[in-house]
Write a structure and sequence with these properties.
Elements (H helix, E strand, L loop, with lengths): L2 H11 L3 H28 L13 H16 L12 H4 L23 H13 L1 H15 L7 H13 L4 H16 L6 H17 L14 E6 L6 H14 L4 E4 L8 H12 L3 E2 L7 H15 L3 E4 L9 H17 L6 E7 L4 H14 L3 E5 L9 H9 L3 E5 L7 E3 L2 H8 L5
Parallel strand pairs: 1-4, 1-5, 2-3, 2-4, 5-6, 6-7
Antiparallel strand pairs: 7-8
Length: about 425
């Protein structure tokens, strides 16, 4: 079920959390007052037992308080009111319980990822796109009883705002419209479920994880992209993942143009524990990567990850330089490079699609690494790229940690951005 529908239904059936909290505070105030009176009796030496009716001790009264609270809340007390420590009950004026908002919330939940698993972590890191989509869909679907043209148009708008793209959005809406005409969908909730299934089916084409080619020794991976997309960082994270899986890895510092690019990759190499082949800044990039391939073959490495200088897809001269790298590698290994990974920054939206198209046309891209998904509401760009090019998405980046670069899973991704449970 979608998260916002679940929260809406629970809010309709659950008792008011404010009423439960206030009732509990009143009972605890009464207990504290009686304890105060009994303490006064002891200090003054007067026998007030005749004037004050017998009362329960705190230890005896606590079960009574909980029983009353449970009777008010029923079996589904959500969320539970925090227990007040016994030490606080001895004060004449205890602090009131925090007021809880019973309305459906789309804020990121503060839940331990270790307890909820990787799916919760992905859901949290895609919060911006999830908020944009689910808040819009909630306002469209909740309370509606019928599917009409206005609802379909509003869903189309929400998809466009998430950068799903015009062509991809029209494809999704067209598929939904056909189902409505055939009367396959009977309610707005069913329409939302159908949208979910179509989105998963569209992305499953791109769900092709990175795999080491056993017939290539080493497997040469050329990593390309524009400045600032996260190429060097992605290489370090992929290297750490492969090294942790038991593969021997070598990094090639082919970005000899950007200041400190070589040092950045060397830092990753030291952190991961893999060698880095580098030359002085300004050296020929193709020559550095060629030397790295020779070293990788001599050492029997499984994978060579080659960094390259960032360049815009419109810079024809620099794009020709990448073609030169391919030709130089082919002199030593006619099948190299075995993988050309294009690193895309998701935060630039539809521009990422244009980059993918031009890089693919020039180099024959074989896989994508989509980064910075945690900092944007434009995660829908994955649908546009997949629909247009059908390229495999090897990894997605949802954070700064090494483990935040994770293999792409279509269903988990759609679940996260639509706030849907498995």
């Amino acid at each position: 079920m979608f998260g916002f529908l679940r929260r809406f239904r629970k809010e309709q059936s659950a008792p008011s959390n404010e009423a439960v909290a206030e009732s509990k505070v009143e009972l605890e105030n009464e207990i504290a007052h009686r304890e105060s009176v009994r303490g006064s009796e002891h200090e003054l030496g007067h026998d007030l037992s005749e004037d004050i009716e017998p009362t329960l001790s705190l230890e005896q009264a606590e079960p009574e308080v909980e029983a009353v609270v449970q009777s008010l809340a029923g079996e589904e007390l959500t969320p539970p009111v925090a227990d007040v420590p016994v030490s606080e009950l001895s004060h004449p004026l205890p602090q009131p319980a925090p007021r809880l908002d019973p309305r459906p919330s789309f804020k990121t939940e503060d839940i331990s990822e270790q307890k909820k698993g990787l799916w919760t972590g992905l859901r949290t890191r895609l919060a911006r796109t999830r908020k944009s989509l689910t808040e819009g869909l909630a306002s469209l679907v909740l309370g509606k009883k019928q599917i009409d043209d206005e609802l379909l148009e509003d869903i189309e708008t929400r998809l466009l705002l998430a950068d799903v793209g015009m062509d991809t959005t029209r494809t999704l809406i067209s598929a939904l419209t056909q189902k409505v005409k055939r009367k396959d969908l009977s309610s707005p909730v069913a329409l939302l479920e159908a949208l979910y299934q179509h989105m998963v089916s569209l992305l499953e084409v791109a769900e092709q994880p990175f795999q080491i080619q056993s017939d290539a020794k080493p497997m040469v991976v050329l990593v390309v992209g524009i400045n600032g997309a996260g190429k060097t960082t992605s290489i370090g994270k992929i290297g750490q993942r492969l090294h942790g899986e038991g593969h021997s890895v070598i990094l090639a510092a082919g970005d000899t143009f950007r200041a400190a690019a070589v040092e950045q990759l060397q830092t990753w190499g030291e952190r991961v524990g893999v060698p880095v082949i580098a030359q002085a800044s300004g050296a020929d990039s193709a020559g550095v990567i060629f030397d790295a391939l020779q070293a990788a073959r001599a050492r029997g490495a499984d994978v060579l990850l080659a960094d390259t200088a960032g360049r815009l897809h419109t810079q024809d001269g620099l794009m020709e330089e990448l073609k030169k790298v391919k030709r130089v590698l082919a002199k030593l290994d006619p099948t190299a490079p075995h993988e050309i990974l294009l690193v895309l920054d998701a935060s630039i939206g539809q521009n990422a699609l244009n980059q993918a198209m031009h890089f693919h046309q020039a180099l024959g891209v074989t896989g994508l690494v989509v980064t910075k998904l945690d900092g944007t509401a434009k995660a829908g760009i994955l649908f546009a790229i997949t629909h247009k090019l059908g390229l495999p998405i090897r990894y997605i980046g949802v954070g700064e940690r090494a483990e935040d670069l994770r293999p792409f899973n279509a269903r988990e991704f759609v679940n996260a951005i639509l706030d849907r449970d498995e």
